[in-house]
Amino acid sequence: MTLAPKNNLTTLDLGLAWHNRFAQLGPRFYTPLAPWPLPAPYWVGRSASVARELGLNAAWLNSPELLEVLAGNQPLAGTQPLASVYSGHQFGQWAGQLGDGRAILLGETAGLEVQLKGSGPTPYSRMGDGRAVLRSSIREFLCSEAMHGLGIATSRALCVIGSDAPIRREMVETAAVVTRVAPSFVRFGHFEHFCHHDMPAQLKVLADYVIDLFYPACRASDKFAGNPYAALLEAVSERTAEMVAQWQSVGFCHGVMNTDNMSILGLTIDYGPFQFLDAFDPSHICNHSDTQGRYAFNQQPDIAYWNLFCLGQALLPLIGDQALALEALESYKTVFPAAFERRMFDKLGLADASASTADLDRALLQDVLQLLAQEKVDYTIFWRRLSHASAAANNTLVLDLFVDRAAAEALLLRYSERTKLIPRGLTAGLMLKNNPKFILRNHLGEQAIQSAKEKDFSQVNTLLMLLESPYEEHPGFEDFAGFAPDWASSIEISCSS
Ligand code: AMP
Ligand code: MG
User: Fold this and answer.
1) Mind listing the pLDDT tens digit for each residue in 459-489?
2) What pLDDT shows up at residue 315?
3) Which end is more exposed in the chain, N or C (fewer Cβ atoms within 10 Å of the end residue's Cβ)?
4) Alpha carbons 137 and 278: distance in angstroms, whole number
5) Quick check: CB of 272 below 6 Å from ligand 1?
């Protein structure tokens, strides 16, 4: 596409108050830049709940004016559009300067930054065309809202806008723009950028900005008194640990945990080749471009720690003491396992899990996960059926998931012995709140994408509705909670987006 940004367009005023604090950081942090126009845009999916968070009324969300603005065709009053610069480690190697190669930050309102992804080339596009295809944009839109529905920290997505403009990937596809929303899109890679390029003043400006806005308690840390940057590293390590623990507990595989895709706020960001596990396979690799399995499902906790080390390295000029930086990172090693166990014990309904039951519970969890892996049992269906079995005191549907029925029976017997220790008994209602019925399986996303290519967006909307409240039963939508069909394993998800 060769349309250049137009000048002298009338601006649309949504009546929102814009602050644009990132834009105040100064010219070394970004290039001011308007999005490129997207020809003949149309709505593909919209989230009323994100609109509410932004203070945007429903009438705007249905308006042709907002469609034009979020397609990049008309300026928005009060915003200061820009593309930010960052660097990062990709697949374990220093990748140098990256930056918003296809995203434009419009501005900040209601404490949330609004970003258009796929909105055309920027000075950071390198060899890319600055665009995103409909396929990957629908996946990002739905997954953002699915993660939020699951209670996992994430960037949100207001909408996907499509266009018939052709985009060349392995095949010719069509263009789309996702409007993403988060308190901040600052990544570990932003810090790496200023450290690597030996810009200590900017590094400090960035760290102070993040601390003042999002981690003010770091200035009053007892443990790291007088060193808010060490306190920041510890706080980010802890948030990241909590986030990855949740990923592991729901079977979410991010697929491309490069340091430029790691949020300084511990949000899940940059949905690309992600996948929710169907069968439980701990070493599953969801990204076909990840030939070494660096980002396999069971590697994620260690990779997050590796990435935090890169962040620690980048913050070192501010922390000033390597021992302090190492101490700050140390908390990941206790917070991650504790958070993971807490989530998994909740899935088991062991509300009474405590130090006195820990050994028993750990052994039980270990054996459950081992049997699920051995038998390649569907991860989500297993937990949901276990929750219902506990309510109905009938294990038949759980046992049906296993070929080695005797092994499953023995495990369920151990489980029931353990649950007898719970003072007020097992509460199935609580288990149902910790074991979702609906996840964004690859094949569901794929079906919605195929229909959307034919301009039928009903599947996108249905999935959005289900994934916004994934713990509810939603009677009548059983097809969206079933096993993956055989063809699902042939879906290839790569970095191409
Ligand atoms: P990702 O792995 O998708 O997070 O992207 C890594 C880097 O490549 C980021 O700097 C992106 O902005 C950039 N990038 C990815 N796809 C494109 C594209 N089609 N055009 C320009 N830049 C891109
Ligand atoms: Mg990225």
Assistant:
1) 999 999 999 999 999 999 999 999 999 999 8
2) 98
3) N
4) 22
5) yes
